[in-house]
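Submission sheet (multi-component)
Chains listed below:
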Amino acid sequence: MSKTIPYKIYLEESELPKQWYNVKADMKNKPAPLLNPATKKPVTVEELSHVFCTELAKQELDETNAYIDIPQKILDFYKMYRPAPLVRAYCLEKALDTPAKIYYKFEGNNTSGSHKLNSAIAQAYYAKQQGLKGVTTETGAGQWGTALSMACAYLDLDCQVYMVKCSYEQKPFRREVMRTYGANVTPSPSDTTEVGRKILAEFPGTTGSLGCAISEAVEAATKQEGYRYVLGSVLNQVLIHQSIIGLEAMAACDKYDIKPDTIIGCAGGGSNLGGLISPFMGRKLRGEADYEFIAVEPMSCPSLTRGKYAYDFCDTGKVCPLAKMYTLGSGFIPSANHAGGLRYHGMSSTVSQLYDDGLITARSVEQTSVFAAAQQFAKVEGILPAPESSHAIKVAIDEALKCKETGEEKTILFGLTGTGYFDMVAYQRFNDGTMSDYIPTDEEIAKSLAKLPKMD
Amino acid sequence: MSKTIPYKIYLEESELPKQWYNVKADMKNKPAPLLNPATKKPVTVEELSHVFCTELAKQELDETNAYIDIPQKILDFYKMYRPAPLVRAYCLEKALDTPAKIYYKFEGNNTSGSHKLNSAIAQAYYAKQQGLKGVTTETGAGQWGTALSMACAYLDLDCQVYMVKCSYEQKPFRREVMRTYGANVTPSPSDTTEVGRKILAEFPGTTGSLGCAISEAVEAATKQEGYRYVLGSVLNQVLIHQSIIGLEAMAACDKYDIKPDTIIGCAGGGSNLGGLISPFMGRKLRGEADYEFIAVEPMSCPSLTRGKYAYDFCDTGKVCPLAKMYTLGSGFIPSANHAGGLRYHGMSSTVSQLYDDGLITARSVEQTSVFAAAQQFAKVEGILPAPESSHAIKVAIDEALKCKETGEEKTILFGLTGTGYFDMVAYQRFNDGTMSDYIPTDEEIAKSLAKLPKMD
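Outcome: structure written.
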């Protein structure tokens, strides 16, 4: 007889994962290597170590170790806000009148308001271990910057954050949270870096982009003694750290004999999606189980559904290594009327390869429908979701409504990456009925893709 | 041998309380009765039923039933965000280098950001059960209004919130959260009520007060068919609902053989303090255990430490019953430079009686020291606390530092009532160094107390 499934499953401390999972080790087709933009040859750990901490550079290129021990100090920090609960969305199921069983892994119960803290503490830890003074980074919606500020405060590391200008202006309170944790926050593009000044000269009045903030943070890291750059998404190392989401979710499912049919995650750079699905993907790759994986992205920034699988720059300033990924071009900046996050032009190379291999499907959704789903979810499940997370909610609801039509009793699992407390400007637009949708034209995307680096 | 105590104790569903606890049943000296302001005679359930739902009016006056069954629908809602964890503050202990053991009961893991949801769902439930159309209320910092909006959305009840004007202006995002949950929010004092118009005429430019917002909400409830008024603090019924905090905390302590010596709660109207301490107080009253209880209030609104124990109006408009309580006078409004919440002029009559009987002690603290404690806590424990909650943190730290001096291994338990995500205007002032303290003069307090109602 199966155990009674509680409304919320919290794993016991003894059941928590002690290792991260590296899905690349189980992939037959490995992601294409990162390339040095000057030589177009695969980057080495040594080369990456100028930008990243050495240990993280190793994790970035690691294709052989499926499991990586989580250092004790990180496990201790995880205990402060983990385990994250796996929640049965009984109230949503009832409201939708669906035979589907809906579960969500909720990562918002911490001050950063999202899953970002899982990788922030890991990256800060390795920086501290290496004896560095501090780290630099970019932040878009602000969750990553907040997470990094928290991790740095905990470890007594300096933290310099370049915040995408439109978020800096729309989310002054995010800035104050970071400052409360002792971080230094600069709106990007800024005149504090060469690349920032160049972008400002070329595009005066730009509201910024993640790609551009990345360039500034990388420059700031390489020009200061004792600093390295850290990044909250896209990278393989981030997917490794974020595997804690999927590992916990899988342990909770196994404990109660829950077998998800469909696993849904929102996808910007791929950190949450990759983290949530990778342990399940490992089972699929090893032939132990099968799942349908759905990546959900905004229609305004549709890298998987309308981008090209090609080598591209990870940043607008073209200072980072080249990555083969689904991309809209490193110059692509979604319209400022897009409030729903997930604004990055590319996608994790690991997620991109899995998608190209047909192991993941993808959908793009309009932001007004995303906020409507968010509100519906908030009213019945109580949690006010982040706009990013709400992309997954929207598709989870769509899937559950399909089950209502077909009568299928599917088990749906989605990632609820965070809370929307700092997104009330966007919610206000939705509440006022002034929110609109933005879908880039084929011409806009083609124009941006025409600037992909030549790879002959 | 005692069990290993986890970092965070989450009770199992089967261990969750199924009944609330009513401390009045165990009090030898009962709180003085609420009086009808016209007749100066104890109010009856029938009289209270014009303002409150009948079931809540009964709870308000109940002095005999120590335990009250929690209706199943409320238990279901509690499952959405409860149990709240009891957390061992290992990192804070380490940072303070204290031999004290510090625990906190964290009530912030829900969208209202505080413990207020515990009573909001109860009050909304009884309103729905009575067949009402909706409820009216006031909110100060906004947690209560948000909580009520969430509960009303869940039960499909109309929700009208009068929000203290200074909070309405400092916290526009709170308003949007409430609107997202479908509530109607009006800044108070407003011209939508008679009492609001009167206050505006007398004090043009006032930033409002809880007492004044209460008056408006009560008027709105009594003038609309099918509406009742609900209140988030002060009342006996609220303390009954909030006993869930203390009952869970006590169950978690008992499970792991944790014996608190000192129990600390912030005190505005008394909802959190009363809820946290009442089950422990029950044990003390019954001679089963002993604890030191500390109520912490802001120096700018020191009802327990500098107020008078007397009958007073619960609201500025003098429409509510008279309550005997520690009060600064119903016309007392703390300076607008006070950002730390807990602005109510009086104190729960139950808490007041316990304090008058010497069963609780009280301290008042300056807001700059409160924010410094908040920041210290945030950096090591990860949670960004609400200013209100941080009053308890401040005194918990003080007590732990005393233990450091004496070498005493005290066990300290405090209530961490909520998160500060919507208090970043106040945090910004603290970060910028522009926050100041306000301590009312003896003359100010005497002037306000001179207007207490005549009780001959």
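Remark: The two ends of chain A are 61 Å apart (CA to CA).
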